[in-house]
Amino acid sequence: MKHFSEADLLETYYMQPSEATPIIAHVNDCNECQERYRRLSQKLRDIAACPSEKPATFWTRQRLMIMRAVDNAREQSGRTVRTARVAAAALLAFLLGGAVVYKSVEPALKTPAVIVAPAPQVASNDDLKVPSDPWQSDELKDFGSVVQWESWVEASSPTGSSL
Amino acid sequence: MTQINATVPSDAELIARTLGGDGGAFGILVDRFQRKIYRVAFAIVRNDVEADTITQDTFIQAYTHLAKFQGRSEFETWLTRIAINRSRDSLRRRRFVSLFRSDEDGEPEGWIEPVDDRPDPEREIMARQLRTAIERAERKLSTQQKLIFRLRHYEDRSLEEIAVLLGLRSGTVRAHLFRAIHKIRQELAEWVTAREEPSNETL
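The joint structure predicted for all components is written out below.
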């Protein structure tokens, strides 16, 4: 019967093979290997033992250090939040104040209407058209008074025209 | 029993209270988990002072990011992940520093004596040799292999647990661990040969 060395068993110890593997099956059946495996496991556990058993003062000191750092972090965070709030409030006040001031001086700031030079007129066919009211045309505008008089005559004495 | 359980606040409750500004609630969480976190950190970095610093940093980081904890995992698992990441950073830093030093790895030599109060000199010698073999093999491991091996060896975490804590697939963890054990076996082979030689001579 082939027995397994400690080196072989080491792999079994760490790798958590399933119960079906040949090495586990052998260890379960063979007293010698079983004992060797037990001793190896014990040694490994001994080596791995962590000295986490510290005096109570160690944990108290550690806890105090953590809580002090946490308090600092909280204070710093609170300060940051406060600063951010103050900054936001200042910005808001600045914007509101600016808006109020702007509203108050807005009329003065209004620029006069921009006089745009008339674009050079290009003669188009429209100029040649006869306006719908012939009396408004350039040729007849100097005769406006006559036009008004004629209109007056026409409006005031309809009967005369009929005569 | 039920009365006692009713008076002990749950992690979720303490987290909610902490987020509400109750600093004392976080103190209870620290008290509840500081030993476990210290043990994990020590298992990985194998140094008292560093483990202490990592434990403190873990809780401070947890506090500042507590609002991001969504409760998808246990609070303890979340804390352990932070501690593992910090420990890994520490190992990497140490590895980087060791590049500029004359010694092999920069690992602290202060190995902890095994807890064994039985007066058995032979067993003590064997344990020391095994420990030396593991120590030598560990120096040849990558940071990730070392991390996984130490969580398995010192913390006795299962492969599945390690996979969850590191956010890796179980197969990846198994491969890293196998490689680590292979190196330890090589070291052990020398140790076994050296141990068997004198007995052969007597025969």
